[in-house]
Amino acid sequence: SPSESERAYKLERRSTSAHIYDKITEVANVITKSEDLYPWANVLLIAVAIGVIEYLPAAALAWTVPLRFRLLDWMVSNFGLVVMILTNIALSMACVCGAVLLTLLVAPSTAGSGVPQLGAYLCNGEMVSDDFLSIKAVAVKMIGVVMAISGGLAIGREGPAIHIGAAIGDLTNRLVNKTIRVTTGYKIPFDGFVKSNVVMMGAASGFASAFRAPIGGMLYCLEEIATHWDIRAHMTVGAQMFVAVAVSAFITDTIVRSTRGSGGFSFSSIIIFDGDENELYDGVIYTYTDIVGFLLTAIVCGVVGGLYTKASIWMHRFRQRTPWLKPWYAKVVDAAIVAAITAAVFSSESLLYTHCKHVPESDDDGHHRMLSAGGGERKYVQYSCGESSYSELASLSLTGEEGVIRHLLSRDSVEFQLIPLLIFLVTYTPLTVLVRGLPIPCGSFVPNLLLGSLIGRIIGEFAEFTFPNSQISEPGVYALVGAAAQLGAWTRTMMAVVVTLVEITGDIGLAGPLICCVVLSRGIATQISHHSFTHVLFYDIVDRPGSPETPMLHPNDWEPPGPKSRRLRRTSDHGPVSVESDDAMYGESASSDTDSYYKTQPPVAAVSTEDITVDCEHEARV
């Protein structure tokens, strides 16, 4: 009968479902109990999750940024420059105010890049907020950075990408542990070292997905936020992180390639290099006559980077310490003013230089690579020029930061005059300082990459103008050297900067000059401003006045090991640390009683209530 066959069908389905569930439980048990399989399964899940989720803000920006510029072009064509400028100001204020309100009312901990907060967490295991690595923080960070960049502020998205990646890594790990507990009944015990590793792995994968530079993402994480990295960690966690950054970057790249050109998405507006223009420059990239110019570029970027760091620190602290900027409505008004100034300057500065040039017919003259940094078409803005002509200054100020970088790194017959480059340098630099301290998700890597490219391009154009018949490299080569030097001066990282730019551009032949210039500019910037902007904010979080917490010292401030040591006693798992000197215990180092593959010295927050002794040689690592 139909009822009996239906009953048999339901029983068969239940049997099949039970069989599948038993198989899943069996696999979960095997993975959970295996010290070899569990970490790698965790790594792959984290990498895939980050690769997919990091695509979402990229896709949103690939749609909103070109839409905004198309709207401005349409306003100029139909209503004139004045209406376009007013429209740009209104759009910018609306987007930025929306980002500020979202951040302040929903998740205040998502303001800024999130990198100093991650560094502080990896230093002492204490988060600035309970929701710093939550789903809510991920959502606010993604929406906020899309709104802020769409509003035209001079900010980047790499900092938020790092924060988002760290949060996704932690959330995925917690989800995996909860799934194992539900399916097997086994509760994986908390381990601070594992938690810090998945956060660090997620942060590196977020950087790798944003720039599609896996090795650069790993090195940036190690140089910038890792505070307890050692050889043992490198042998285990290092291999896992290496796989995670590669997989996450591959996943994001795959999705970008599959959706490029569909649904109105224009990834060339937010991606410097998309991998399609990967043929190397045919011939020698630089000559020995460029060495003096490269060194001059590094010196200038070092001085500018040091002064720029000081100005950024001052602006951030001014906003944090000014009483009348404390209320939420004052923060909204402050952001609206900055947005209006930024939009007004970018929209109207082209009136200062009205020279027009003919739009090039082809993106490639057959002899030079049009885009040293790859990444799609270059945009030439007509502004007030006639048909088939473009404004040089408007093509810098109204194409978005990634579009400007493509112009500056180009190596072809299309050159920029010194006057528009200098005007844009004078206007762009203070606008990037004005955003410091605003309560919005924002990054500073891309703005400094642009600033360094601009300085290098100016020096390259000047060298080519001064010595027209000499063997001087293309100004785009100087722009790449300037980008590396400025990033080194701003972040104080070295390997991460060089490797990231080589991965983005494919210019492996410039690795030598890039290394030398980064080291030189970094040293000069350190003499002007001892710590980087990120590290200053890091110390503001960690070194709280009146706190018994042992201060974290930057390697530049370390003293040689002495006969003194400290005993750290944590009153609870997340409570304060009391410090007491104990000369007799010098030479004893902290250790862990666990024997799992991944368990070694955990961060301070994961230390049990028992006393541990940490000598001066290991204090900074803890």
Give the helix/strand layout:
Layout: H1 2-33, H2 37-53, H3 55-79, H4 81-106, H5 115-124, H6 135-150, H7 158-184, H8 192-211, H9 214-224, H10 231-259, H11 291-321, H12 328-348, E1 356-358, E2 389-391, H13 392-397, H14 401-409, H15 418-434, H16 445-466, H17 475-491, H18 495-505, H19 511-528, H20 533-542, E3 565-570, E4 577-581, E5 612-615, H21 616-619
Antiparallel strand pairs: 1-2, 3-4, 3-5
Helix pairs in contact: 2-7, 2-8, 2-10, 3-4, 3-6, 4-6, 4-12, 5-20, 6-7, 7-8, 8-9, 8-10, 9-10, 9-18, 11-16, 11-17, 11-19, 12-15, 14-16, 15-16, 16-17, 17-19, 18-19
Describe what is shown at a glance.
This protein has 622 residues and is mainly alpha-helical. The protein has helices at 2-33, 37-53, 55-79, 81-106, 115-124, 135-150, 158-184, 192-211, 214-224, 231-259, 291-321, 328-348, 392-397, 401-409, 418-434, 445-466, 475-491, 495-505, 511-528, 533-542, 616-619, and strands spanning 356-358, 389-391, 565-570, 577-581, 612-615. It has a three-stranded antiparallel β-sheet. Strands 1-2 form a two-stranded antiparallel sheet.
